[in-house]
Amino acid sequence: MTDPSDVSAAASAAGGFIPDLPDDIAVRCIARVPRSHHPALALVSRSWRSLLRSPLLSAVRSHLAVTDPPVLALNLRSPTDQAPWFLLDPLLRRSGKKSPPPLRLPPPPLPAIGSACAALGPALFLLGGSVAGVPSPAVQVLDARLRRWSLVPRMSAAREFAAAAVLGGRIYAIGGCLPPADAWAESLDPAIGPTGGGWAVVPSPPLIREKWMHGCAVLGGRILAVADRGGVVYDPVAPAGEARWGPVPPVLDNGWRGRAAAVGGILYSYDFLGKIRGYDLESNEWKQVEGMEKELPKFLCGATLANLGGLLCLVWEGKDLASGNKEMVIEWAGIEVSKTTDGKLQGSLLWQEPVVLDAPKGSSIAHCIALEL
Hints:
This protein is mainly beta and 373 residues long. The chain folds into 2 domains: 4-63, no CATH class; 71-371, Neuraminidase (6 Propeller). It has helices at 7-14, 23-31, 38-41, 46-52, 55-63, 250-255; strands at 71-77, 85-88, 103-104, 116-120, 123-127, 130-131, 134-135, 139-143, 148-152, 163-167, 170-174, 185-188, 200-201, 215-219, 222-226, 231-234, 245-247, 260-263, 266-270, 276-280, 285-290, 304-308, 311-317, 327-339, 345-360, 364-371. Strands 18-19-20-21-25-24-23-22 form an 8-stranded mixed sheet. It has a 4-stranded antiparallel sheet with strand order 3-2-1-26, with no helix packed on it. A 4-stranded antiparallel sheet has the order 4-5-8-9, with no helix packed on it. A hairpin with a 2-residue loop joins strand 22 and strand 23 (311-317). Helix 1 packs across helix 2 (23-31) and helix 2 (23-31) packs across helix 5 (55-63). The longest helix has 9 residues, at 23-31. It is globular and about 70 Å long. The protein starts with 6 loop residues before the first helix and ends with a strand. This is (wild Malaysian banana) hypothetical protein. InterPro entries: F-box-like_dom_sf, F-box/kelch-repeat_ARATH, F-box_dom, Kelch-typ_b-propeller, Kelch_FKB95. Residues 105-355 form the FKB95-like N-terminal Kelch domain. It comes from Musa acuminata subsp. malaccensis (Wild banana).
């Protein structure tokens, strides 16, 4: 049950919440409490704990337009061929104390491998991927507030290991399909709804359709998608007479290694030398993020970056916290980066902590993306 109009019936069934206060009003009061206080609220009673974990509260918070800082959705590749998703909430961190375990999400309807992912508000879009060894055009969407998956209009082309991005409220899928496909690039407006429209082909020059993408970001109002060597830039609002597609700047291409994230107009990447570097579009150069040499380990295995509400979030595979541990351990850190007067990038570590995930040791990080709740 997720309709806010049914709050009273659901609350009464749970056994009531606040004495002498109608349950529907009580639920609305609880819904306004910041997410960081939910662990304490869960100690009040069994009915409160059940409410805090229910889709009902998420629906009420959405109805009341209650917002909190974003959470991090993390996807793993597992030796057991499973691909579990988790939500890591920075508000639930407890400095100097053991933080509560991250929430494990239900699995998507289709067990796809090599999907691309993009986020729009609380919605996580999984595009394509290989299902039973065959590339799929399926699009799976997770509502992080309700913690439920659904299927939306399929793409025009089947894809795996494509690039995905959100720009101007539209979801874009680029590459990952056979080169001859006319729908090598396409976009969807989720606001139209499943019955009002589907994927629209984004015209692209045939010469660029050989690209199989491994990285994607939005920078300066344009989509950047890179392959092993070379990449493309797409500008959806390019003036008439100018090409909407073009190559990425050589400096950007040469420095982009692995996963990257755009924060505050800077594209950040973790290189093979164990350095965090940022690409400045205005000066067309890579700059090392200074001040982190003594704050973080030298080499971060499987390092992944994300924009977490304006912070640069770094996630990597951690070390075992205890001998005999059979679960995966990751580390994550929040970094605030600012520009100095001489144009350098200065980093400040706000927090760093290990997290034990309900996944077997030997798993690896597949996706890391922020969702707004």
